[in-house]
Specification:
The protein is mainly alpha-helical and 408 residues long. Helices cover 70% and strands 1% of the residues. It is built from 20 helices and two strands. A two-stranded parallel sheet has the order 1-2. It is elongated, with a radius of gyration of 24 Å. The relative contact order is 0.06.
C-alpha cells in the first residue's frame, strides 16, 4: 500500500511534464491533455494499491499515448496517418523516460495562460493541465456544475487551437507581458482560495495550497524574475494567517482580532526572507510591494504595534506602480489609521463613481469600518448591511451582519 497523499502530490508534479512530453511527440495539445487526464485517473486508482512504478513519468506517458492511439483508431480514415505515426513513436516504459527528460511545465503554464483565453478559462485550464486537478475538483472549488466547467475547458483548448498557439515559450519580446498574465492567474487562484467568493466556507485550502505549489514551481523555473519571487512571498505571508482567520464555527475573525500565536512562523520567515532579497535588487513591482505590506503586518507582535506609517508609504508606492480601485480602497484604510477616519473616508469617496466597484461589497464594507471608527454608528450600520447584501460568501455575510447588529 502506498500513501494516497504521496501519490496525489507526485501526480500533480508529473501532470504538466507528461503533457509536454506528449505534445512534443504527437502535437495536438487538446487531445494530449485529455489523454493525460485519463492516465492520471488510472494512476490514482492503481498506484495506492500496486505501488508507484519505478519510472512513474514513463508509466503515465505510455498509458496516455495508448489512450491517444485508441482514440485515433476509432476515428475516420483521414486520421490513419497520424495513428500510424503515433504507433511508431509509442515507447515502452523504459524507453519513454529516455525519449525526453525535459520539463515542459513552464511551456504548458504559459500555454494555459494564453492571452486569447478569458480569465475563467485560464484559471480552469491551468488548474487541470498544470495543477493536475480533475474537472470535478475544479468545479467544486469554483461552485459551478461539472458539466459547465468541462465545457469551459473544452472551449479553452479549442480557442488555443484556433489561435494557432505553438508549444514553445513566448519570444523574449513577449515574455514580460505573458508572464504578467501567468502571475495574475496564479494570484486569482490564491485569492479565490483565501477568501472564497461564495459558499459556506471562508477559505478553500486546496486552492491556496495549489497556488503556492504552482508559484513555487514557477519560482524554481524562473529564479531571476523578481515579481515571481514577490508573488510567492505575498502568498506565504498572507496564507501564514489562515489558521487564525476563522473561529471554531467558521465565522470570520478580522486581522486586528486574530490570535497571532496561531500564525505560521516558518511561512512568515520564508516570506520575509524572499521579499527582503528582491527589494534590494532594483525596481520593484506590485507583487513585491504587496508582499512588503504583508510583511509589516506579519512582523507586528500585536495589532497596536502595526507600523501604519510604513504601510501607508508602501501603498503610496503601490499606487504609483499599479494604480487601481482596489489599491485605493486598501490605501484608504492606511490613511485612516495614520491621518484619521475622516481622511480615509474622503479618499474612499473618490471610488463612489467607479463602475468597477459597484458590484463588490468591499467598498461598503470598508466604508462601514471607517464610519464606525469616526463614531457615525448609524451610517456605519447601513454600510455594513449594504455590504452584507452584496457578498455571496456566507462567513462574510454573517460577519457584516453581526457588525451591523452590534451598532443597533
Amino acid at each position: 500500500m502506498t500513501d494516497e497523499r504521496q501519490v496525489e502530490t507526485l501526480l500533480r508534479d508529473l501532470a504538466p511534464q507528461v503533457i509536454g512530453l506528449l505534445v512534443r511527440r504527437h502535437g495536438q495539445f487538446d487531445a494530449c491533455e485529455d489523454a493525460v487526464q485519463e492516465a492520471l485517473l488510472s494512476a490514482a486508482q492503481q498506484w495506492p494499491e500496486q505501488g508507484i512504478p519505478d519510472s512513474p513519468k514513463s508509466w503515465l506517458a505510455t498509458v496516455a499515448s495508448r489512450r491517444l492511439v485508441d482514440e485515433w483508431r476509432s476515428e475516420s480514415a483521414r486520421r490513419r496517418r497520424e495513428e500510424n505515426s503515433a504507433l511508431m513513436d509509442l515507447a515502452g516504459p523504459g524507453e519513454a523516460s529516455t525519449a525526453s527528460d525535459s520539463d515542459d511545465t513552464l511551456t504548458v503554464l504559459f500555454l494555459c495562460c494564453h492571452p486569447s483565453l478569458s480569465a475563467p478559462s485560464q484559471l480552469a485550464l491551468t488548474l487541470r493541465a498544470v495543477g493536475g486537478l480533475t474537472t470535478g475538483e475544479i468545479a467544486t472549488a469554483f461552485l459551478v456544475p461539472e458539466s459547465t466547467l468541462a465545457q469551459r475547458i473544452s472551449r479553452a483548448k479549442q480557442t488555443i487551437k484556433k489561435a494557432g498557439a505553438e508549444f514553445v515559450l513566448p519570444p523574449t519580446a513577449e515574455l514580460a507581458d505573458r508572464l504578467r498574465v501567468v502571475l495574475q492567474v496564479l494570484y486569482l487562484i490564491f485569492n479565490e482560495g483565501y477568501t472564497a467568493s461564495g459558499g459556506p466556507e471562508l477559505h478553500r485550502a486546496d486552492l491556496t495550497t495549489e497556488a503556492v505549489r504552482l508559484t513555487r514551481l514557477l519560482h524554481r523555473l524562473m529564479p531571476g524574475e523578481d515579481e515571481v519571487t514577490g508573488l510567492l512571498a505575498l502568498m506565504l505571508l498572507t496564507d501564514a494567517r489562515r489558521a487564525a482567520r476563522a473561529a471554531g464555527d467558521g465565522s470570520l475573525i478580522p486581522l486586528a482580532d486574530q490570535d497571532r500565536s496561531r500564525w505560521d512562523a516558518e511561512m512568515i520567515a520564508e516570506g520575509v526572507s524572499l521579499v527582503s532579497g528582491v527589494l534590494e535588487t532594483g525596481p520593484v513591482g506590485p507583487y513585491q510591494v504587496q508582499a512588503a505590506i504583508a510583511a509589516v503586518h506579519d512582523e507586528a507582535p500585536t495589532a497596536d504595534d502595526t507600523d501604519w506609517t510604513q504601510i501607508l508609504a508602501l501603498y503610496d508606492v503601490l499606487e504609483k506602480v499599479s494604480p487601481g480601485p482596489v489599491v485605493t480602497l486598501n490605501r484608504a484604510v492606511a490613511v485612516a489609521q495614520v491621518h484619521g477616519p475622516e481622511a480615509g473616508l474622503d479618499l474612499l469617496g473618490t471610488l463612489d463613481d467607479d463602475s468597477r466597484m459597484s458590484q463588490t461589497h468591499r467598498l461598503d464594507s470598508v466604508r462601514g469600518h471607517l464610519l464606525e471608527l469616526a463614531g457615525d454608528t448609524g451610517a456605519a450600520r447601513e454600510a455594513y448591511l449594504r455590504a452584507a447584501e452584496k457578498t455571496a460568501s456566507e462567513p462574510e455575510k454573517q460577519y457584516l451582519t453581526g457588525r451591523a447588529e452590534r451598532l443597533t
